[in-house]
Design a protein that fits this description.
It contains six helices and eleven strands. The protein is an alpha/beta fold and 192 residues long. Helix 3 crosses helix 4. It starts with a strand and ends in a 7-residue tail after the last helix.
């Protein structure tokens, strides 16, 4: 039986922070069920491409359409071995959905692996699960981690921070690190 990962995303999720983990985790043999509140399998979410082009903050350009692979309303967290929360703009509004917060709390209550990249920790903060955890995030989200009772860790953009069942990374250059550490938390063995 294929092990399943739940991926929470939404419109204007960051392109690389969605597509790369989706493909990398699928390549490892996991079934990745990408969901978004109020959407079903086959619906799409718009992605955003974030990059630094000289301004004080990142620019946001329209990315690809990303096809969802499962129905949000059908999510049963008992069916999944891990949860991946994408970054970009989506976390700031999906965290307003009570079922999203329940899903996050259920994964933490079951001590299952959870990954959150970039702005993804905004969802963790809203769910109230960061108390006592060390986590990184996009630097502008560091105060969210702290205000939620977590310890914000400044990490290089290509690094990931692991604390118990949680792995976080600050931005898409950390895709490799977060996917690697998340896979380890789920017990994946990669042999070359």
């Amino acid at each position: 039986m294929t092990k399943k990962i739940l991926m929470l995303c939404g419109d204007f999720t960051e392109d690389y922070e969605t597509m790369v983990p989706f493909q990398a985790l699928s390549m490892l043999g996991y079934q990745v069920d990408a969901v978004c509140p109020d959407k079903k399998a086959g619906d799409v979410v718009a992605t955003a491409v974030h990059d630094f082009l000289g301004e004080q903050t990142y620019t946001e350009l329209r990315g690809h359409n990303f096809a969802l692979t499962a129905d949000f309303d059908a999510v049963n967290t008992e069916d999944y071995v891990g949860l991946f929360i994408t970054g970009g703009r989506a976390p700031e509004y999906i965290r307003l959905n009570e079922r999203v917060l329940e899903i996050v709390r259920e994964f933490f209550a079951a001590n299952k692996p959870v990954a959150a990249i970039c702005h993804g920790p905004q969802v963790l903060a809203a769910a109230g699960v960061l108390e006592g955890y060390k986590a990184t995030a996009y630097p502008a989200v560091g105060s969210d981690v702290t205000l939620a009772g977590g310890t914000y860790v400044e990490a290089e953009m290509d690094e990931a921070v692991v604390d118990r069942n949680l792995v976080t990374a600050p931005a898409w250059p950390g895709d490799t690190a977060i996917c690697r550490e998340f896979a380890k938390l789920m017990g994946a063995k990669i042999e070359i």
